[in-house]
Amino acid sequence: MYSLYYRLAWKLSFIGLGLISFVYAKSSTHISLMNDIKERNVLVTYYSAKCPFSQQFLKLWKGIDVHSLPTVGSGFASHLIDCEAETELCAKHKIKYYPSIRFHQHGSHQPQVFRGRRTAGTLLSFLGKAMLGSTVPAVEAEALGDTAASPPLMLDGVMELTDANFDSFTAGGPVFVKFFTDWCPHCKLLKPLFPQLAPLAKRLGVALGQVNCESQPDTCSKQAVPHYPYMALFGHGRRLGVHEADNTIENWQQFLQLKLQELVADRAAAVSEGVLENWYSIVKPVSLTWSSFDKTARSTEFLFVKFFAPWCSHCQRLAPVWERLAQDLAQEFPDRQQLVLGRVDCTEEAGLCNQQGVRAYPSLLLYQQGHLVDSFRGLRDLAALSDFLRTAIGLRSKEQRSEL
Prior knowledge:
Layout: H1 2-24, E1 26-27, H2 30-39, E2 41-47, H3 52-62, E3 76-82, H4 87-92, E4 100-104, E5 112-114, H5 120-131, H6 138-143, E6 153-155, E7 158-160, H7 166-169, E8 175-180, H8 185-190, H9 198-204, E9 207-212, H10 217-222, E10 230-235, E11 238-243, H11 249-272, E12 286-287, H12 290-299, E13 302-308, H13 313-332, E14 339-345, H14 350-355, E15 363-368, E16 371-376, H15 382-403
Parallel strand pairs: 1-3, 2-3, 7-9, 8-9, 12-14, 13-14
Antiparallel strand pairs: 2-4, 4-5, 6-7, 8-10, 10-11, 13-15, 15-16
Pfam families: Thioredoxin (PF00085)
InterPro entries: PDI (IPR051063), Thioredoxin-like_sf (IPR036249), Thioredoxin_CS (IPR017937), Thioredoxin_domain (IPR013766)
Keywords: Signal
């Protein structure tokens, strides 16, 4: 009799724990999220099931005892939002990376963003302070920065590079990188100046990155950084040049323009000698937005588009291949009215990606005169992509001629 009672009690206790976890970590929609914010404190985790960093965080979150915080009480809820399923909701809240963790105080639609190392201790510390109504200082959040494998975080147009993502991010290119330390006085002077280069760098097709050599010592050791600050241009996994003049916007601009001209000249010489090097090319895929997509698709016969997310490791590996594909095809299809290679960043253009039915990254879709006609699902190497595209264009052009 007693043994049966204890067995039932044991099972009911697990059912109760399951109900509690459901209440405090539930999949969400816009309506349920807004309703909860009106009634209690809310922690929101925006994630993608395909993102490995999201998967790591969700495992961590399951093991955290939020009720250990005296400030929690009954006025707390946790929402998990899958951005693959709730693309409009994630676009509405301007989610740029996964997982993105935000805390809403009771009744407030302006969240505090968690940017610390994704550990139980730092997350509980963040929650404890946020629930007491104190804002976590930006300096503290940066000091807790995640040195584990995580997608590059962009702040003011500059990517925060780590030991885990430096090689993959500089495998494409070009990337202008600042190596620094917090104690270096010259580095402190550059801190507000370097982000001002972002608009110019974007026009030149150059990404900006920075490495804190105190928290990311392996990268700085590997790159043999001799002093701070140290400024260097990287591309396709190699160092392309070191900036040695005074650190000003004007000098950086001259350095980047000169190096890019040298790379284009080197590429032209390699082509004339029959050797095509995998360096920065003046021929680049076209970046498409909501406003330019339809116009570009209608103005060219074939448009081959890569829909991607910067945090996606498969997309990072594809990036240099996609640039090389554009470079090769530009020689075979010089007429931009016949073929254009495009790229769409789905963290910036979530609405466009949703409209085109993109559900996985990368998605490689082929359009003909503005209509989706095919998608690529093979090996993402240069030969397979080239064969797919040439075959698709040849067959469809032949069909079109036969119809005439």
